[in-house]
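Re: folding output
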Amino acid sequence: MSRFIFLFTMVLMLVMIGCDSNDAKVFAKKGRNLQIVYEQPVLVKKLLFSSGASTALIEVDDPSTRIAAIKFTIVNQQINILKLRIDTDSVFIGNGEKGIRIPALSPTENATSYDSAEGIEKFSPVLWGEFEVEIGYQASGWIFFEVPTGLDLTTIWWRAADEIIGRF
């Protein structure tokens, strides 16, 4: 019996070591109605995203800002049909200690059509607009923010169908 426990422990340790190859830090926060899972922001000067069959480009004009791209997953574990509206008033990022909140960047208003994808990082799908998530399902995608260079991003404020404050 002790050999079995030892062997099981060793196999479990190997599996855990093998699964730890993801460099992205993932965070989760549960609210009353939903759970959000989000990753550490990716900071870029410009990015591509897909909207249907077309590809669009977002880039910063101000050299003192960057685009923070954050991948979110919204999990519905409680409500039959969760109605969500993701827009500039529903998700914020910033520094909670300094009281700085930056609204989400509308990809539809700030993008230009783009054909080539050479050397530019692509973030798809985009989590934006109005949609429904049935109980037991989830929706995933990227949300973008234009943030000042050098700002220590520590906090997410989520206001879509729930009030959640998350930390990095």
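--- second protein (sequence, then structure) ---
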Amino acid sequence: MIEKAARKWTLFRQGVGKLSLATFVLGLAFGLFGRSCLHQPIYIEQRASKLVIFNNTTDTLNFTIMQRRAARFMKWKPCDHPAQCGGRGIPPGRSGSMPYELIYQWYPGAEVVVYWWHLVPDAMAKNGYRLNGPYEELSNTPVKAIFGSD
């Protein structure tokens, strides 16, 4: 009887151990990547002094950020050649940032629009690149920002 109970306890512990290992691996993955799963093309993180954009795509990501209300009145066009993008492209799997004070019409606590796009090489295009996007993501900014930190 005791041997049977001990065998059941051992099987239970082994099952819980496997469950715990799977839970640990999933927890570690979500801890490392936060909300930036592979199916989300970009992930935006608000920090004390800047917005950080994580590129989860397989292509270089170009972006611009402006305050949401001001964006309604802006006439802008995404850069359509790497030479025109000012070196602000974010390579695949990397991150880029923009300090709040450089965001057009930003004020503390403002909602901002992150416009992002890819440039796809295309021999048939006028300048050699085809625009994939722009897409937009909304993000809030902190009410209290600390300039020049982190």
